[in-house]
From TrEMBL:
SUPFAM superfamilies: Adenine nucleotide alpha hydrolases-like. The record marks 123, 331 as: Interaction with tRNA. Keywords: ATP-binding, Cytoplasm, Disulfide bond, Nucleotide-binding, RNA-binding, Transferase, tRNA processing, tRNA-binding. InterPro entries: MnmA-like (IPR004506), MnmA-like_C (IPR046885), MnmA-like_central (IPR046884), MnmA-like_central_sf (IPR023382), Rossmann-like_a/b/a_fold (IPR014729). This is tRNA-specific 2-thiouridylase MnmA. The gene is mnmA. It comes from Deinococcus aerophilus. Belongs to the MnmA/TRMU family.
Length: 369
């Protein structure tokens, strides 16, 4: 059994539970931080200190521990695409990409190389064996459920993955850690993007060129402000727009890097009746995908009912039962049938009924100074 250990309490308890269950456990942590790690990056999860703590926990539990070098894959699959998405006017979720492109894909391969039957992680997800079919279901702790981040897991990897804490609530996980005397029992959770020091906007500004452009009203094409780059905005945003008429409440409703234009409008202009997604991954047979299902378009939003207009191996189109606010390209559209995770895709664009963008002249303007 290869147990992914991050230096946090969830993976620590995972290793302990597996050992108690009689598995032959090998602890492993994926190293992502570079040799020239910047201050305030990789300081909680995925950090040198976390690796030290994971090794110490492995000693407490009585299992061997290995630090696996995945720096190059992390830069190629996570950091690079993260910046590319912002440059294209999209809002990425690097944690989804990390689980899809690096963690589960690479860990399952590594487990097979080491002769391990399973990979286990501390995710709050339930594995359900339904005859020959393995399903992922929402974790029993609704506050911690992490199925949203796992929609991209290769379907053929599902039989090899276990989630020992998926049927536990977070307080109970900490109790187990305390009972076992694990040094991570009271370790706080990581909330930030591991490779980003400080604010995302500052990180993006360091890596992407800035160019001033117009902020325009979606209904009329009227210039209502200026911006320093479409990469600094996200759909639905209403604060920090710097509009000429600041008393008017406006939301970002469309980003167009090609013309370097930020489009704003009323709240109603930011409501969409559906979405299209690409890069789909299904955890069921496509023929068995329900025509009516639940979809979650951001991690912290509730799932909503939707009708599948079209679905193929490349992507899908959905129509919401009720309009949704700020469906952001680059985020994940994650599909569910009740608690069961069915798969997902990356949101390509918002609904087809986005207000028509007026044809207006635009002159590129350099950043002052």
């Amino acid at each position: 059994m290869l147990c992914a250990m991050s230096g946090g309490v969830d993976s620590s308890v995972t290793a302990a539970l597996l050992k108690d269950a009689g598995y032959s456990v090998v602890g492993a942590m994926m190293r992502f931080w570079p040799d020239d790690k910047r201050t305030d990056t990789f300081d909680s999860c995925c950090s040198p200190d976390a690796a030290y703590e994971a090794r110490r926990v492995a000693e407490q539990v009585g299992v061997p521990f290995y630090l696996l070098d995945y720096r190059e894959q992390f830069q190629r699959h996570i950091v690079g695409p993260f910046l590319e998405e912002y440059a294209q006017g999209r809002t990425p979720n690097p944690c989804v990409n990390c689980n899809t492109k690096v963690k589960f894909d690479e860990l399952v391969k590594k487990a097979k190389m080491l002769g391990c039957r399973y990979v286990a992680t501390g995710h709050y997800v339930k594995r359900v064996d339904n005859g020959p079919e393995v399903e992922f279901h929402r974790g029993d702790d609704p506050r911690k459920d992490q199925t949203y981040f796992l929609w991209g897991t290769p379907r053929d990897a599902l039989p090899y993955i276990l989630f020992p804490v998926g049927e536990l609530e977070k307080p109970r996980v900490r109790e187990i850690a305390e009972e076992r005397g694990l040094l991570t029992a009271r370790k706080p959770e990581s909330q930030n993007i591991c490779f980003v020091p400080g604010k995302v906007q500052d990180f993006v500004a360091e890596h992407l060129p800035q160019a001033t452009g117009w902020i325009r009203e979606i209904a009329s094409g009227e210039v209502v402000g200026e911006h320093l780059g479409t990469q600094f905005y996200t759909l639905g945003q209403k604060k920090g727009l710097g509009l000429y008429h600041s008393h008017r409440v406006r939301h970002v409703v469309h980003l167009d890097p090609a013309s370097n234009t930020v489009w704003v409008g009323d709240y109603e202009d930011c409501l969409w009746s559906g979405l299209r997604a690409s890069g789909a991954n299904y955890l069921c047979d496509l023929a068995d995908l329900p025509r009516e299902l639940d979809v979650q378009v951001r991690y912290r939003t509730r799932p909503v009912r939707a009708h599948v207009v079209h679905a193929d191996e490349h992507g899908f189109e959905l129509r919401f039962a009720e309009p949704q606010f700020a469906v952001a390209p680059g985020q994940s559209a994650v599909l569910y049938d009740g608690p069961r995770l069915l798969g997902g895709g990356l949101i390509n664009d918002h609904a087809r009924d986005l207000p028509a963008i007026p044809t207006v002249a635009f002159a590129a303007r350099p950043v002052p100074g």
